[in-house]
Amino acid sequence: MVKQKSWFQWIGVFTLALLMVVVTACSSGSSTATNTTAPASTDATASTDSGQPKDGGSLIIAVAADPQVLNPNYAGDRVSLTIDQALYAPLFQVNKGKKTFYLADSLDLSKDNLTYTLTLKKGLTWHDGEKLTADDVVFTINKILDESQHSFLRSSFVIGGKPVQVTKINDTTIQFKLAQVSPAFEAALVQVSPIPKHIFENETDIEKSTKNNNPIGSGPFKFKEYKTGEYITLERFDNYFGGKPHLDSVTYRIAKDTNAANLALQNGEINVKYLDPQDVSTIQATGNFDIQAYSEGRLAYLMFNENSDTGVLNKKEVRQAISYALSRDEIIQVAYTSTDYAEPARSPFTPDALYFDNDVTTYDNNIEKAKQLLQQAGVSNLKLRFIVSSGNKSQEAQSLYIQQKLKEIGIDVELQNMDSSAWSNKFVDPNAKDYELAISGYIMGYDPDAYRILYTSNESSNYTHYNNKKVDQLFVEGSAEADTTKRAAIYKELQEIIAADAPIYPMAYTKTIVAIDKKYGGLDKAILKPVVIFEDLSKIYLKQ
Amino acid sequence: MKSTIVKRLIQIIPMLLFVSIICFGMIKLAPGDPVLSFVTPNMHPEDIERMRQSLGLDKPAYIQYLLWIKEALSGNLGYSLINHQPVLQQMLDRLPATAGLMGISILISVVLAIPIGLLAAANRNRWIDKCINLLCYIGISIPVFWLAILLIYLFAIKLHWLPSVGMRTIGVDSFWDMVKHGILPCAVLSFGFLAVYVRYIRSSTLSQLKEDYVQIQLAYGSSPKLVLFRHVLKHVLLPIITLLGMSLADLVAGAIVTETIFSWPGIGSLGMTAVKGMDYPMIMGITLFSSLMLILGNLIADILYRFADPRIKSTR
C-alpha cells in the first residue's frame, strides 16, 4: 500500500495544533469576560474629559444596518436618524426641558398663542457653500405637509385638523400660524432639520430622489463616502455655524452581528457602540472604554388587552391584581441585570416628559392583595394568553417571570411565541382579540400631548383599548392649554387617573448603554441623546 | 452537446418562473407587514394607508405579482421597500464581494481537500487518519457563527493579526488590505466544505484502491505514490465536479451567516436585511439570483463532467 510521507503527517499535526490553540484561547477569554462586575456610569452627563482637546483624527461609530434614507424628512429608523444628526443641523433641540438653539436664534410666541416666529442665525451655509435662509425652512415645512411627498412628520404639522401655515417674513425670519392653540407645536418643530431648497426644488418625489445619495446638509460633518454594507464616512465641515469641529472625520461602520461588533470594539476597529446590559462587564474589563447609561425616555410596560374575546381584562380589579402580583425590582433584575440600566416605572409618562410625575398610584408586589382583588372581581381559574416576540431575549425572560408570578395568584399564563413581524402585526391590530398580555415599550418625546394617541379612546395607537371619558377630555384640554401651571395640573391629574385605572403595568424606564473609547473627550458638550447617541458631534475630540 | 446545452438553458425559464411564484406566495403567506417597519407611534392611519398605496401594497397579491413579473421580464426587479433603491443595482453592487468570498472559499476547500483526503486514505486507520477524521467531524458539525466568533477572538482580539469586520479598512483601497480582511471569512466558509470534501476524497480513494487496475499496477512494481497520483487521483477528482455544483446551495446559506457576522458587504448580508424588513422585491431578487446561480452551477458541472469523461454522453 501507499507509504506514509512525513510532510503529509505535518499537515495533520499543524491543523490539530491550530484547533487546540483556538480552543485554549477561547476558554481563557471566557474567564476574562466574567472578571469584573463594576457598574457602568449611569449619568449621561458624567464627565470623562480628563485629557486636553486636540484637533484631527477620526471616530468610528457602530451602526446595525445601512441607513434607509439620508434625508431628515424621511428618516424613521435609528441608523438614518443617527447619521442625519451629523449631516443636518436641527433648528433647535430640547434636552431635559432646556432649549438649545442650533440653526435658529430664537423662537417667539405671539400673545394669542397662535403664531410662532422663528429667527435663523445669520451667515448660515449649506455644505456646498450656498446660503441657508428662511426659504429653505419654508420649503422643508411645505414638503413635509405635501401629502404626495409621504413625510413621516406630516401629522405633527396638522393641528386641529388644519395644516400649519408657514410664511417667510425675510431671509432669516419665518412665521408659523396655527389653527388653534397648541403648546405641543414646539415638539413638532424640534423634529425638523431643514433640507436645501436649491437641491430638491425640482424633484417630484424627494423620498426616492437620487440626490439623497449625496446629501447636502448644514451639520458639523459633510458627506464623503458611502460603501454600501460597509461604512459611511463624513468629513469635517469647516464653516459649521457652531465652530469648526475637532475631528477630521466620523465614520459609521455597519456591523450587523452584535457579538462580532463587540469583538471589533475591543479590537479598536470601532470606537463607539451600543451595549446590552449583559455585555457591559466584558467591555468594561478591557479598561479602554467609558460606559455611559442614559435615559432615552422609554417606558417598558406590560400591556393588558381589554379587547380580548374573554373580556376578562375589562375588569379593573383583574388588571390591578395582575399588577400586584409582579415586582418591578425583580423584572429589572431579570431583564436589565440591575437598576443601573433601568429604573422602576409607575407613571405612564416617561421622566423626560414635561409635567412627569412618578408619585402616582402604584401596585407594589402584594400577593394577598392580588388574590383578594381577583376574588372581589369574581374571577377564578383564569387563563391568559401572552404573545411573545421570539428572539427578543429581554421579552422572553420577562414573560417567563410573569408566567411564574401569576401562577402564585392562580392565573395560568399560556406563552405564545411568534416571530417579530407576526408579533408586531398582532400587537398593532385594533381587532386582535385572541390574546390578553404583551410586553412592549414606547418613546414619545417630551411633550405630554404625544401620549394622547396611546390613551384616548378610539385613537390609532390605543393598543390596550383603554376607555375613560375623563382622560379623553383632559387630553383635549391639555393640548390647547397655554398656561403652564394649568397645563401641569391637567397632565398630573391625567397620570394619576391612568395609573389608577391600570390599563398597562409600567415596568421600567429603560436606559441606553453606550461604550465610548477613552481616548475621546468632549462628551459632556456633545450631549448623549436618545436614538442618535450624540446631539452635537462637533464637540468630540481626541485627547492629547 | 450544443443542443443539450441549449435545451437546458431554455428549461431555466420555467424553472425560474416556478421559483418566483413559490417565493412570492411564501412571502405573502408569511405573517408580518412591510409597512410596519416604517410605522412610528405618532403616524396617523391615513398616513400609513398612503404609504401602503405608494408601495403598491394595497393591490391584490396576484396583481402585485403580475406587475412584478412584467417589470422583471424587462430587467427591472423593482425597488427596495426599505431604501427605495433599485434591487438589481444593489445586487450588482454587492455581487463582487460575494463572488470573491465564495470563489476563494471553494478554491481553498478543493486545493486543501485533495492532499488531506489522499493522506487520510493512504494512512487508513492510522493515527493521522483518525486525527483527520476527527477534524472532519468537527468541521461538519461546528456551527458557522461559533467558529467565526472563535477565530475573530483569537486572530483579531488576542493576536491582533487580522481585522474582524468589513471588507476593507476605512478609506483604504489596497489589494493587501482586502486580502487581510478576507482571510477570516474565507477560512470560516471553507472549513465546513473542506471537511465534506476530505471525507469524500478519502472514501472515494479507498474504494479506488481496491480496484483491479490499482492492484495490477502495484503487482507490476509501480510505486504506490505513482499509482496514487497518476491513476487513482483522476478517478477520484471527476465526481468532485458534481459535488461542487451541489455544494453551491450550502455555500449560499453559509455566505449569509458569514457575511452577517463579518459585516461583509455581499448579497448574503443584503438578503438578511431584506428578510428582517419584509422587503419582498429584494427577497424576490435575491431568491431568483440564488436559484439562477444554482441551476447554472449544476449545468456547468454537467458540461464539465461530459468534457472530462466522454463516456457519460453515451450512458446518459
What would you note in describing this structure?
The complex is a heterodimer of chains A (544) and B (316). The longest helix of chain A is centred in the N-terminal third of the chain and has 28 residues, at 6-33. Chain A has helices at 6-33, 78-87, 134-145, 185-190, 197-200, 258-266, 280-284, 316-325, 328-336, 367-376, 393-407, 420-428, 452-455, 469-479, 484-501, 523-526, and strands spanning 53-54, 58-63, 92-95, 98-101, 104-109, 115-120, 158-159, 162-163, 165-170, 173-177, 221-227, 231-236, 249-254, 272-275, 289-304, 342-344, 383-389, 412-418, 437-443, 504-517, 520-521, 528-529, 533-534, 541-543. Chain A has two domains: 1-271 and 519-544, Periplasmic binding protein-like II (D-Maltodextrin-Binding Protein, domain 2); 296-511, Dipeptide-binding Protein, domain 3 (Roll). Chain A is α+β, with helices and mostly antiparallel strands and 544 residues long. Chain A has 16 helices and 24 strands. In chain B, helix 4 (87-122) packs antiparallel against helix 9 and helix 6 (144-158) packs across helix 7 (175-209). The longest helix of chain B is centred in the last third of the chain and has 38 residues, at 224-261. Chain B is globular and about 85 Å long. Chains A and B meet through helix 1, strand 13, helix 6 and helix 12 of A and helix 2, helix 4, helix 5, helix 6 and helix 9 of B.
Task: Offer a few descriptive terms.
heterodimer; A: alpha+beta; D-Maltodextrin-Binding Protein, domain 2; Dipeptide-binding Protein, domain 3; 2 domains; disordered N terminus; B: 316 residues; mainly alpha; MetI-like fold; 77% helix; transmembrane (chain B)
